[in-house]
Design goal:
Blueprint: H1 5-11, E1 19-20, H2 21-30, H3 35-43, E2 48-49, H4 52-61
Antiparallel strand pairs: 1-2
Length: about 60
């Protein structure tokens, strides 16, 4: 099941963009994101995100 893209932004608050997928994962972990979100991020084909909208769009495709 895909993680909610709106809730994902809560765990990515303060993230500097552009960011790599690994940067997003590490930032989310530091904000105590649930493992489901980490797994969803890791599963995305995109390796770089230019802004929060691109992250939200990626989660919406899941």
């Amino acid at each position: 099941m895909a993680f909610n893209p709106i809730e994902a932004q809560k765990y990515l608050k303060g993230m500097d963009y552009p960011a790599s997928k690994q940067d997003l994962i590490e930032h989310a972990k530091s904000n105590d994101a649930p493992q489901e979100m980490i797994d969803d991020l890791d599963a995305h084909d995109e390796d770089r995100f230019e802004n929060p909208g691109e992250v939200q769009k990626a989660f919406s495709k899941s």
